[in-house]
Amino acid sequence: MHETETPDNPPEPPVPQSPAAHPYAVFRHAGFRRYISARFIAATGMQMLVVAIDWELYERTGSALALGFVGLALMIPMILCTLPAGHVADSFNRKKIILGSTLSLCAASLGLTLVSAFTDGKNSLWFQILVYALLGIIGVARTFLWPASAAFVTSLVTREQLPRAITFNSGAFQLSCVIGPAVAGVLIWLLHGAWVVYAINLVAGLICLLLIAGIRHEHKIPVREPLTFRSLVTGFRFVFENKIILGTLTLDMFAVLLGGAVSLLPIFAKDILNSGPDGLGLLRSAMPAGALVCTLIIAHRPTMEKAGRAMLWCVAIFGVATMLFGLVNQQCLGRYFPAPAAVWFWLAFGLLALCGAVDNVSVVIRATLVQVLTPDEKRGRVSAANSLFIGTSNELGSFESGFTAQLFGPMMANSIATGTILSTVVGGFGTIVVVAAVAWIWPQLRRYGRLA
Length: 452
Description:
- By secondary structure, this protein is mainly α.
- It has helices at 30-61, 64-91, 94-118, 125-153, 162-191, 195-213, 229-232, 234-241, 243-259, 265-272, 276-299, 307-327, 341-372, 379-408, 416-441, 443-447.
- α10 (265-272) crosses α15.
């Protein structure tokens, strides 16, 4: 018997594992099963819709500017409606907000179906006007949907299960990013028309509506705050006062803004990796595929004990992998290490998959911290602020990547391929610098421990 093992001080028995710690325990909640099924179906339909809109606009107009207006039509409503969307999510029943937003998305899908099927002409001005107007409705509906949906998840599972619920929620979205575009492309190719895709998204929205309607949910609102400027900015004020949340949002926002190379993938596929449109499809699926694998790994591991440090390391790896993605091609490393084009392509694919995997870790940690550290009466407004931070960084990141590629390329008398490589490498390096700055400015994030 050891010194400490006396009759008065027996050895402590091992702590039994909580049933809630099982990787798939979250699926024992019927509400969560219905919610994640609805989210996957709706997200897949929306991914299909976005691909179909891009294809049809370019097919009818032949204009790259017409494609640029798609992002603008979706971003403007997000900027204008984020503050009221957060207030509404905290002041009204969140389930009803989700149902109302989904119904609006269904109406917009119906409109796109009719416009696509009954508007003639290759370059119809009315077609473009109607499409952008319907995209504006989609932008408004999504802006109100996101904060209500993010806060809604917290009521479907226990606090201990929330990190895994968010992990599977993220995985469902990533799976939709893999399946949706591929299915849309096949349908458009087979049927020679986008209206069928819009109609399928309408059906997906109706199925989502039915699934969400069947969830038992009660959102208790302590005191409904009047609609004032002070109440509208509560979410942003809370974010700036909570250093951990501010640090995570800043880290994620600048990582996407500087390190996102997704908008440059067409140039990589055509002019750098020489892989063509089929290669572009594979490259676009690489990050969601990596995120899916990461989802399964996270789900089967214990709750993160050093979440802050893990997030910083993952974003740093994202930056390094982005830099390497810009370099693994014939024009750069191929000069010193000759290899077949297929080798460089699959190395690039693997690095993008790694970016997706570590980015998914960052997303899960950020989303969990935002929900765990925010009081329920403010979750809608803080989630709205979170959506604005990340949503605008995606759009601005695409612009930043395109602008720097043009700057380092033709504007400096280089090829567009050279500019794209330099833009990607510099962006990845900038992400690493941001990680170091965030770790220094907000040491609370670096020291943050158990995620749950």
